Amino acid sequence: xxxxxxxxxxxxxxxxxxxxxxxxxxxxxxxxxxxxxxxxxxxxxxxxxxxxxxxxxxxxxxxxxxxxxxxxxxxxxxxxxxxxxxxxxxxxxxxxxxxxxxxxxxxxxxxxxxxxxxxxxxxxxxxxxxxxxxxxxxxxxxxxxxxxxxxxxxxxxxxxxxxxxxxxxxxxxxxxxxxxxxxxxxxxxxxxxxxxxxxxxxxxxxxxxxxxxxxxxxxxxxxxxxxxxxxxxxxxxxxxxxxxxxxxxxxxxxxxxxxxxxxxxxxxxxxxxxxxxxxxxxxxxxxxxxxxxxxxxxxxxxxxxxxxxxxxxxxxxxxxxxxxxxxxxxxxxxxxxxxxxxxxxxxxxxxxxxxxxxxxxxxxxxxxxxxxxxxxxxxxxxxxxxxxxxxxxxxxxxxxxxxxxxxxxxxxxxxxxxxxxxxxxxxxxxxxxxxxxxxxxxxxxxxxxxxxxxxxxxxxxxxxxxxxxxxxxxxxxxxxxxxxxxxxxxxxxxxxxxxxxxxxxxxxxxxxxxxxxxxxxxxxxxxxxxxxxxxxxxxxxxxxxxxxxxxxxxxxxxxxxxxx
Length: 564
Hints:
Elements: H1 6-61, H2 63-67, H3 81-95, E1 99-103, H4 116-127, E2 134-139, E3 146-155, H5 161-164, E4 186-195, H6 197-249, H7 265-355, H8 361-392, E5 400-402, H9 404-421, E6 425-430, E7 437-439, H10 441-457, E8 464-472, E9 477-484, H11 518-528, E10 532-538, E11 542-550, H12 557-563
């Protein structure tokens, strides 16, 4: 496996920083060089414009001397300021790379016709008389390469009065109609074009020189950084790394010599720290070996203790299972023993009720009390039996076709007397689209009977208990709702009422009785179907229990044969 090349990781960033700084310097130098070149070309153009303006003014001032002979006779020589300026500019342009000309918007000669740049300059000078120069970079028609264009304004003064002032349209002494300019009006411009190729060549040569210098300096920085880091950092750290690697192989706690490995500065301090750590590690290692031996003995003792405790726990678990089986057997036996005489009591109560159909009201009330309490006790015993079955894991579903009307009929028959005793209204409703479905009808009746009897017990007189059934097509479930306007269940108790032997607190004047098994069994039966029970309740307003069972459609024999 290749070692980490620290000298590369250190030399390259240093070189990169230097290269970035040099590139920034080149960019700034280039920008400065361009600015200096532009300033130089502007200064040259300004001097040339002033020189041409001086020639123009000289000819204009000496116009009378030129056109009058020594006898004082006027004789137009045809040498005026415009012609002299154009001639000097043409001669200068012919002998150099510079292009000097005069331009106006409405020139007297086509030679003075303004091009695009000169038109822009004339417009700028006309719009703002305070502007003294106008510059731009561009190309010239008929010329190769780029040029620096410079323009300076020519304005009307008293020396130009004879040719350009006075009445507009009047023929001046040169034979051209006058423009009618007044003092300060823009007459035209001096246009100077300076070629930029020499400046661009100088810029390219300077950039090339700086590029070569950048490459040489970068290579030098990389080599120098590589050599110094290799000698004073990488080699000492490499020896230190190899010494650390030997710790993991032969556990050799050696001491390094800083001078021998060429360690300087911080590396020297690191070697000293390594040597100190090596001594401490050796001492720790020796102590650790003895500690491991001691802990091994302790661990063996602890394992033996755990084995012993596991055997005791297994024996205890066996006794608990036996006790649990005995408890379940005891509850089942006692429930059966209680159920037999209780069934006889209910039967005799029914016989007495029929025999006393037209007898004493006091006897009728006593018979009814015996019947009601017997039914309550029978329901309690049945709950205990079912709870024992569930706990023993013997509860199973006997799926059969369920007709909601039939379930409601049996519930109303068994619970109507309990509701009437408490002066409550008991109402059953089902949706018109309620289908037949598959479920354990006995366990479903047990669920609803527990919920309804609970609602009756916790609803004061003149209240109502409503039972609804409908098919929820969105999630394909059968839903039963038991709604009452009774005392309600506090929010903190709603999470525990479905546990065994737990009853919700009652806010009625008379406390209600019960074992606390009814809701627990209802929840177990619903979950055995693959469903659930939910409750919403507000103290003083009532409770809302919802039983949700998966909808299993009834398949007729004809449909089954057709599917086959």
